Amino acid sequence: MLEWLLGLRNRAKSARPANRNRLRLAVEGLEPRWCPAGPQITSLNAAIVQGDTVMLSGTVSDPGADSLSVSFQGDVTGTAAVSNGSFSLQTQASQLGTIYAQASDNLNNFSTPVQTQLSASPPAITAGITENGGTSVTISGTVTDGSPAGLTVSFSGEVTGSATTDANGNYSFTANAAAPGTISVQTKDVWGLLSNTSSVMIVDVAPSITLSVSQDGNHTVTVSGQVTSQAPGGLTVTLSGVVEGTATTSPTGAFSYTGTASNLGQIYAQVADVWGMTGYGSIEFTNTPPSISGFMANLNSSTDAWTFSGQVCDEYAAGLTVTLSNIPGEGNITVTGGSQGFFTYTTILPAGASGTVTATVTDWWGATSQPVTVTI
Fold this sequence. Notes:
Blueprint: H1 2-15, E1 22-25, E2 33-36, E3 40-50, E4 53-61, E5 68-74, E6 78-81, E7 86-92, E8 97-105, E9 114-118, E10 124-125, E11 128-133, E12 136-144, E13 152-157, E14 161-164, E15 170-176, E16 181-187, E17 198-202, E18 208-217, E19 220-228, E20 236-241, E21 245-248, E22 254-260, E23 265-272, E24 278-285, E25 291-300, E26 305-313, E27 321-327, E28 331-336, E29 342-348, E30 356-362, E31 372-375
Antiparallel strand pairs: 1-2, 3-4, 4-7, 5-6, 5-8, 8-9, 10-12, 11-12, 12-15, 13-14, 13-16, 16-17, 18-19, 19-22, 20-21, 20-23, 23-24, 25-26, 26-29, 27-28, 27-30, 30-31
């Protein structure tokens, strides 16, 4: 390049006399004449059109020439014709940097070389994140640049990979993250200029569990609850204590497990989210003694039959055994409550029988009600 510039300068010097405006010619037998000097580049501009395509333009002054051209060296090479004092050339540049230009005319006169700089601003990038459930995340954003299409966006940190921008500089990338933490996003333009680094975060909060428990009879219980988490679906809840088992959460984090309780006492729940962070919950499984309401005795005068009836109240009354005591002529008998806890017992007592009949009930956990009585 230096040799080319020195050659241009020497040619320009040899083509012009010390008087830069005109040349004096003397030929034997003829009167001396002053001739116009060589061309001069009066302006030179370089602009990026798209990608690595650039437009070179400017103006040339040379009043004595019939035709002119401008040649370029440096990071752009080529030749442009001059028309009405102006020139332009659209071509590809090899890189950003210095572009040199020299004009020549049909009289083989050369201008002094001039130069201009081809420069560009680095691209700018934005990034946002959407958590899709599980470890899947989508990172998207926009690249702002003079030529934003087709740029490669690189991801590092807890997500690695790359995406390509569309015609408007937009990009989107979906992948599984390795863990909660920082994801960095960066790109570079066609000239190799790096953008800013944009960062997004995956923040994980340990899940939490709420619990409830209901009795289903004969030591069978249903433990249900809700897991609160950023991605609550498909998690495994492990139960321990007086109830043991596992349940899988629904997409909303709800779960339910039905099994046998070994006793009254504490039920514990544990769950781990997709990132391995653990949440805990617990509930005390208790029992309230049953009771009997509406206990009565009715005599059917047409049949002389007595009917004893009432209702058992309990967490799960169906199937509990009611003991009726002191029935004249029968002693103690047992009856089983129905689905709503109602029970009845019909019998014909001895003529003239009287007394007080007592009713009690014992629940699934051995708790016995307070006795209730009816007089016949």
